[in-house]
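tool=predict chain=A
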Amino acid sequence: MAVTLYTYEEVAKHNKVEDAWIVIDGKVYDITNFLDEHPGGEEIIFENAGGDATESFLDIGHSDDAMKILKGKYIGDMDPNSKPLSKKETQPAETVKKSEGSPTFAMVLSIVCLIIGYYVLNN
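tool=predict ok
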């Protein structure tokens, strides 16, 4: 099966929460349905929507599981004749709403409160 080639102009159009693509090492990934699952938060990954995320991706140590997930999001390669756009031309069309807090943090806080309450009541 032939690999689909994309230009930087085509990728730049996919810079919305409901339609987000990124480029990593010349490969194009549709990360739309992964934004809210990203362990580092959707804001971090969305910053590169519609553009080249190679540097940002390589700066962070990603697990083998992350690499497997990325492979599953692959949709094609960059056209080698396409010229990269400026950062301004690839900015996300919108911003992601910042989350009000992590469910994990709330769970940990609840457990800590229960432990403190138990300790206070039994001493």
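The chain has five helices and six strands. The first strand starts at residue 5 and ends at 6.
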